[in-house]
């Protein structure tokens, strides 16, 4: 295989384990909004205080400290609200730790790359796997300064990791920094303050199986009535028995409403969250619940009816349908999207493209979608790509993590499986083996379309290389059928075959049979050029 890396085996991605649906709380009165804001601010202050205590505990946290924090919160709220707050605090602290570990790994990767490039002579060219030396002494000096800065950051980050220190901002770091750039953001101080306070509210409740309608704190009845269990200091705001406040709004989930109704009528756990969209001035309620883990079907069963190979690009999905034998069927399809603009616009574009892709898969009758298991985390560093800003922006703008999660969730709703394949060499080998053969006067094949074929074949367990035609009858063995097709278990089936000249003359071939010795030439033009031809004088006649 030479310098080719070992390919990982394809696998069927696990299905989604959770569901979340959302609906708007319409026709709220001024009193309803005042109560929601009071409850959110009160519980948000408790959540901020609990998060501070948890961060101070660091690695010393245990069951005893958790119980002590929960007891302290129970006196000013309720036991269920205290449990929801402490659980959210632990989730936020754990997320901060994971982000801290990823930051340390990114710094370490940048330091290794800088040290390698600084050790090379100036102007030395790089390879496809490693960057070369720097172009000038000025650039070398600036990168040496950056190496020192990264080493200082890495040392501080490792010290925080070992001490268990994390830095968390309730409300978001981006919104916090916006306070210093209100003019650029187009906000007034009052508008920013409203957003900041709304993001720091806490209006959420975990579900409880066996309780009425699956939740005691935020209860939603089958007819859409929403009521909230008020904390102890705000119990005087209740308008119903047992310290509850009933909203005038009614909920009716249009998406998965029947599934939600079945759960609450069976008193199964459903978690709720209420939040305010300050830009639109609208209140929303989100319901979520967990699904039992479902065993994924075998790879052979998922690909029994063929597969659709999808190549992910910066502005479109290039998809090609293949049958169960790995043969392309029909023409390539493209599903475009635009990843510019706000996060909401990008997310909507991805959903729309995936919806069209899934609808096409259902229409043609396949049961699986093959996609590359992309992860550009180690590829985004400026130390590796240097001045290639456009390439870094390209791979940074592709939402690979959200794409995989959303595709798996949307495909599972339609009974489709998602097969993740190794992304190595799919574009290169697809263009080499499939772009030209599939191009016709009426079908234009791009490199991305050919990569979709390569991805689909890899998902099916076939090699990317296509089968070649047998030789004509006037060459070599007349009736023999030569083919480049290799069995799935053969080693090196994805690579190119080494030329026969690499083996010594007369030596054994890879199949174990001995190669026939070359026969002597009978013609003058085939003789070696090093032979000395001498004319015999006796053969000359006058």
**Percent helix among the residues?**
40-55%
SSE succession: EEHHHHHHHEEEEHEEHEEEHEHHHEHH
Mean pLDDT: 82
Strand order of the largest sheet: 1-13-12-9-10-11
Shape: globular
> Main sheet, how many strands, which sense, barrel?
6 strands, mixed
Number of helices: 15
Q: Rg, please?
A: 33 Å
Helix/strand/pairing category: alpha+beta
Number of strands: 13
| Beta-strand content estimate | 5-15%
Ranges where pLDDT stays below 50 over 5 or more residues in a row are 520-542
What gap, in angstroms, lies between the N and C termini? 65 Å
Describe this structure in words.
- The chain is an alpha+beta fold and 542 residues long.
- It is built from 15 helices and 13 strands.
- Strands 1-13-12-9-10-11 form a six-stranded mixed sheet. The protein has a four-stranded antiparallel sheet with strand order 2-8-7-3.
- Helix 2 crosses helix 3.
- The N and C termini lie far apart (65 Å).
- The C terminus is likely disordered.
């Amino acid at each position: 295989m030479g310098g080719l890396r070992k390919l990982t085996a394809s696998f069927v991605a696990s299905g989604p384990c959770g569901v979340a649906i959302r609906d708007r709380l319409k026709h709220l009165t001024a009193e309803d909004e005042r109560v929601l804001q009071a409850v959110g601010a009160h519980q948000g202050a408790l959540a901020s205080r609990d998060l501070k205590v948890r961060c101070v505990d660091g690695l010393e946290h245990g069951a005893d400290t958790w119980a002590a924090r929960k007891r302290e919160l129970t006196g000013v709220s309720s036991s269920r609200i205290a449990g929801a707050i402490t659980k959210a605090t632990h989730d936020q602290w754990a997320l901060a730790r994971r982000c801290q570990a990823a930051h340390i790994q990114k710094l370490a990767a940048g330091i290794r790359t800088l040290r390698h490039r600084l050790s090379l002579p100036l102007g030395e060219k790089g390879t496809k796997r490693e960057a070369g030396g720097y172009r000038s002494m000025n650039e070398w000096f600036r990168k040496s300064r950056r190496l020192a800065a990264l080493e200082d950051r890495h040392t501080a980050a490792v010290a925080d990791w070992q001490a268990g220190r994390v830095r968390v901002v309730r409300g978001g770091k981006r919104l916090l920094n916006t306070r210093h750039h209100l003019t650029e953001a187009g906000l007034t101080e009052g508008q920013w303050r409203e957003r900041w306070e709304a993001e720091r509210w806490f209006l959420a409740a975990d579900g409880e199986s066996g309780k009425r309608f699956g939740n005691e704190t935020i209860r939603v009845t089958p007819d859409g009535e929403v009521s909230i269990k008020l904390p102890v200091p705000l119990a005087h705001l209740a308008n119903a028995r047992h310290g509850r406040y009933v909203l005038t709004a009614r909920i009716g989930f249009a998406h998965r409403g029947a599934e939600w109704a079945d759960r609450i009528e069976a008193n199964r756990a459903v978690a709720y969250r209420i939040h305010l969209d300050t830009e639109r001035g609208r209140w929303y309620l989100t319901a979520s619940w967990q699904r039992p883990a479902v065993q994924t079907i075998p790879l052979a069963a998922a690909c029994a009816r063929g597969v659709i190979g999808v190549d992910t690009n910066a502005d479109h999905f290039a998809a090609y349908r293949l049958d169960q034998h790995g043969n392309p069927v029909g023409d390539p399809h493209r599903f475009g999207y635009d990843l510019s603009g706000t996060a909401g616009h990008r997310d909507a574009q991805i959903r729309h493209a995936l919806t069209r892709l899934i609808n096409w898969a259902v229409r043609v009758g396949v049961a699986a979608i093959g996609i590359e298991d992309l992860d550009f985390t180690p590829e985004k560093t400026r130390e590796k790509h240097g001045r290639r800003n456009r390439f870094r922006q390209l791979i940074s703008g592709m939402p690979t993590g959200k794409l995989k999660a959303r595709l798996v969730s949307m495909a599972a709703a339609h009974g489709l499986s998602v097969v993740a394949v190794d992304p190595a060499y799919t574009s290169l080998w697809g263009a080499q083996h499939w772009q030209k053969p599939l191009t016709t006067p009426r079908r234009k094949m791009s490199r991305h379309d050919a990569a979709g074929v390569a991805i689909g074949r890899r998902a099916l367990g076939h090699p990317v290389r296509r089968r070649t035609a047998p030789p004509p009858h006037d060459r070599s063995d007349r009736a023999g059928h030569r083919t480049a097709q290799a069995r799935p278990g053969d080693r090196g089936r994805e690579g190119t075959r080494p030329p026969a000249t690499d083996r010594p003359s007369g030596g054994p071939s890879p199949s174990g049979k001995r190669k026939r010795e070359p026969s002597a030439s009978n013609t003058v033009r085939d003789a070696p050029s090093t032979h000395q031809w001498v004319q015999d004088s006796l053969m000359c006649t006058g």
